[in-house]
Amino acid sequence: MAQQFGEKVLFVATAEPLDDEMRSRIEIHKINRPQGWRTLEATVGIGEEIIAQ
């Protein structure tokens, strides 16, 4: 939705690659993610990480 209004997109990735299936799902998502999106990979302290961006 933000992209439709010309806003920057920050994708917050919270998944942890704990097994092969999840690693595969994460890689597929990275490949399919629009190039203009910024990505924050974090599982804890997400609010602080976003503020630090």
TrEMBL record:
Alphabetized InterPro entries for the sequence: CobU/CobP (IPR003203), P-loop_NTPase (IPR027417)
Single GO molecular function: nucleotide binding
Pfam families xref list: CobU (PF02283)
One GO term (biological process): cobalamin biosynthetic process
Protein name: Adenosylcobinamide kinase
Originating species: marine sediment metagenome
